[in-house]
Amino acid sequence: MKQQYGLDAIEEKVRGGERLTADDGCLLFEEADLLRLGTLARQAKERRSGPYAYFNVNRHLNLTNVCVSRCRFCAFCRDEDHPEAYLMGIEEALAAAEEAIPMGITELHIVSGLSPLSTTSTSSVNVTPAFPNFTSRLSRRWKSNIFLRYQDVL
Question: b or e along 52-82 (b: 16 or more beta carbons within 10 Å of the residue's beta carbon)?
Answer without folding.
Answer: eeeeeeebebbbbbbbeeebeeeeebbeeee
